[in-house]
Design brief:
Elements: E1 8-17, E2 20-26, E3 29-30, E4 35-39, H1 46-53, E5 61-66, H2 73-76, E6 79-82, H3 93-102, H4 109-119, H5 135-147, E7 153-157, H6 165-180, E8 184-188, H7 192-198, E9 201-206, E10 209-215, H8 216-221, H9 226-232
Parallel strand pairs: 4-8, 4-9, 6-7, 7-8
Antiparallel strand pairs: 1-2, 1-3, 1-5, 9-10
The chain binds adenosine-5'-triphosphate and magnesium ion.
Length: about 240
């Protein structure tokens, strides 16, 4: 049994498909119970990296260690990954959360369900079919589903893409609650204002590589690489 999941370390991590290096020798260390934001242009490899870290994809080379342990089913259960395009069951909002709860032994299922609905601001919609929720409500449900199991690490892939400012703020409040509970958050976003608002640390990716890693304040005020600078200027293309 692995005690803590941090630090997260990878060594020479690669993911290759048909001769193309989608993740190309990545070695970051991520620690601290704060918010790590992954930035980078479309196709940089951010979503693939998240899937590798969570053990949903097998690396073609290299290693991943969470707190010194290899990712396996047991470790995966202590984390939650919210996908870029969450998929809801064609059942009610409450049933979608109950399903996640049914995957683990919880003696306080009812309390957890109520708390999750409240946190996501979905108590009034608890009995509505989940696929009928708006985009923002679905994203909030997806995060509530992730949080309800009390994971130690929450990995969020563009949780507020396509959302209006109010819905985006609601998502950020959920993220802040999770941070307040001591969870490690790894967040992919294209929203630079959001990265500035919530981020403590930035990992900047381009072409399957980590080009820069550092504090959020440092990256935005003084990016160290030409790629980082070009990205912030809106000038970096793949
Ligand atoms: N399973 C796969 N097999 C082959 N190629 C893949 C696979 N998954 C992703 N890719 C390719 O890898 C590259 C990186 O994809 P990824 O989804 O990680 O990008 P991203 O940084 O998340 O981009 P976006 O910001 O658009 O979400 C893309 O060119 C994509 O087409
Ligand atoms: Mg992606």
């Amino acid at each position: 049994m692995c005690e803590g999941l941090l630090p997260l370390k990878t060594r020479g991590l690669c993911f290759e498909v048909r001769g193309k290096q989608i993740i190309d020798h990545i070695d970051p260390t991520v620690s601290g119970n704060d918010i790590t934001v992954i930035l980078g242009p479309n196709g940089a490899g951010k979503s693939v990296l998240l899937r590798l870290l969570h053990g949903l994809l097998e690396p073609s080379a290299g290693q991943i260690e969470w707190g010194g342990c290899r990712i396996d089913e047991g470790l995966r259960k202590r984390q939650a990954l919210v996908f870029q395009r969450p998929v809801m069951m064609r059942r009610s909002v409450a049933e979608n959360i109950r399903f996640v709860l049914s995957l683990r032994e919880f003696s306080d299922r009812h309390e957890r369900l109520e708390k999750a609905l409240d946190l996501a601001g979905l108590t009034a919609q608890a009995n509505q079919p989940a696929p009928r929720l708006s985009g923002g409500e679905q994203q909030r449900l997806a995060i509530a589903q992730a949080m309800v199991r009390d994971p130690e690490v929450v990995i969020l892939d563009e949780p507020s893409s396509n959302l209006d400012p109010v819905a985006t703020m609601a998502i950020e409040r959920l993220i802040e609650v999770a941070r307040g509970e001591g969870k490690k958050i790894i967040l992919v976003t294209h929203d630079l204002s959001q990265a500035k608002r919530v981020g403590d640390e930035i990992i900047f990716m381009h072409n399957g590589r980590i080009v820069e890693q550092g504090t959020c304040a440092g990256f935005f005020s003084n990016p160290k690489t030409p790629e980082g600078r070009a990205y912030l200027d809106g000038a970096l293309l793949l």
